[in-house]
Amino acid sequence: MKRIIIIALFLGSVLPALAQEKPKLYTIASPFERYTHYLATARFMGAVPMGSFKDNYIDKASFQNFSLSIEWVLRNSPLSVGGEIGSTYFEKRVPRALYEGSEGTISAVQTRTVSQYPVEVFSNYHFLPRNSQVQPYVQISGGASILDYTVYYGTLSSQDQKVRFKYGIGAGSKFLFKKDGTLGLDVRVKYDGTAYKYDYIDKGISSVNGSIGLFYRWW
Amino acid sequence: MFKKASFLLLIVGLGLMSCSKDPISDLSNEESLVYITNHDKSANFTQYKTFSIVDSVLIVENSRAGTSLDDIDRAMLQRLITNMESMGYRHVGRKENPDVGINVSWITNTYLNVYQPLSSYYGGYWGGYGYGYPNYYSYYETSESSWVISMLDFKNPQTTPSGKTFNAVWEAQIRGAAIGDQKLVDKMADSIFGQSGYLKVK
Fold first, then answer.
1. Is A156 within 8 Å of B12 when comparing Cβ atoms?
2. How far apart are CA A70 and CA A218, in angstroms?
3. B40-79, pLDDT tens digit by residue?
4. CA-angle at B191, arms to B185 and B194, nearest 5°
5. What InterPro entries does the annotation carry (chain B) (predicted)?
6. Which residue of A52, B15, B62, B125 has the lowest C-beta tally within 10 Å?
7. Confidence of residue B94 (pLDDT cuts 50, 70, 90)
8. How many angstroms away from the CA of B12 is the closest CA of chain A?
9. Which tens digits make up the pLDDT trace of A12-31?
């Protein structure tokens, strides 16, 4: 909830700028065509666990994921580069069961969680001109995930916190609300992988997430 | 402009980080309980016929110790007796040479290792003996209270230079936020025996 408020505040600080119509003094190409410009995107994501992460630890989809990115849309190039930070969270409750270990038998209701705060750099390749109203793109990203693995046995917890390499590949599209406008919608599907091995997780944390976002661009 | 934007992003980022989740806030009292049991794998429980139990609960709080016998303690002791009897052991007084002794403690500990400060407190009740204690668990390093119920082998005492010591052949810990809930006492006692089928002698 707090996060949504933060994003709303962020958008709130951005929206008033839209009201100021820029006078059209020249009939030359839009500044968005002529200059390298900036683009900020706030995304809400739904994520589905994949692979052994899904099989061994959490198989429940998560809708508590958010991210913010900022990018340079490069002049004379189909590429943009930028950075993205986010928060993703997976959780699963397992009913009371017995867990056998060298230390004994534990009977508990287990709550499995993984939180990640990914910090990534990314590059987008755009298929259409950068001022077209629909801008499909593919994305590759890499960076670090500040992660917290916590398994609760009842109210007791066993925790591991690490910073690990993460990467992602995605495809999506930007949709400008109006031609040559500054505001638009971003839709993206992305595969995320984090190199991590601990306790139940033996082959990393992988998920596919679909996101819907709002972007604002300026120069 | 970009500098400003990245600064904003940083602030929002810190905001995201500081949101802490509480995934266990919806657990019921019963669900919050964790039962941990362990036993000496070499022990042959069928050799034991009789047991005795402490007459009050040992309260250990960091470096202080005492005993307590209020309603919840009485309920716990009574239910442990019921369970031991249904496992096939006969309840006898502590002067009648019981084969095993049941110790019940309520431990509040803020040390990392729950077991280190314990050994010296047991001696008194069972007649001033020393006490050998296998270090079974060490991996929940939190500050909290727990019930610790252990079964001491009186039949096979170890002789050491400092006197006789008894090994704990079975131990159960009950942990979690609701261990002081008297309505759950029966459930707690039944659970630790329920998951320790090897104790059955009949």
1. no
2. 11
3. 988 899 999 999 999 999 888 877 788 889 999 999 999 9
4. 145
5. DUF4136
6. B62
7. confident
8. 7
9. 555 555 555 566 665 677 88
Token pair of A1 as six digits: 């909830």
- Nearest in space to A186 (alpha carbons), one of A64, A39, A16, A83: A39
Q: Which of B12, B13, B38 sits opposite A104 (nearest CB)?
A: B38
Instruction: Please identify which residue in the block is written with the tokens 């001022």.
Output: A131
Structure tokens at A53: 């992460």
Q: What residues 96-115 of chain B have any CB closer than 8 A to a CB of chain A?
A: none
Q: Which residues, including other chains, have CB under 8 Å from residue A196's CB and lie 6 or more apart? A: A145, A147, A149, A162, A164, A204, A205
d(CA A60, CA A58): 6
Whether the per-residue pLDDT at B120 is higher than 50: the answer is no
Mean pLDDT of A82-108: 92
| Interchain contact, A6 vs B15, CB within 8 Å | yes
Chains A, B: CB contacts within 8 A come to 113
| Chain A residues near residue B31 by CB distance under 8 angstroms | 96, 109, 154
Type of residue numbered B172: A
B17 touching chain A per CB within 8 A: yes
Interface with B, mutate which of A43, A94, A105, A112 (most B CBs under 10 A): A105
pLDDT in tens, A161-208: 999 999 999 999 999 999 888 999 999 999 999 999 999 999 999 999
Give start and end residues of each alpha helix (H) in chain B: 2-18, 29-32, 71-86, 119-122, 185-194
The percent of residues in chain A predicted with pLDDT above 70, rounded, is 88
Q: Which amino acid is at B84?
A: M
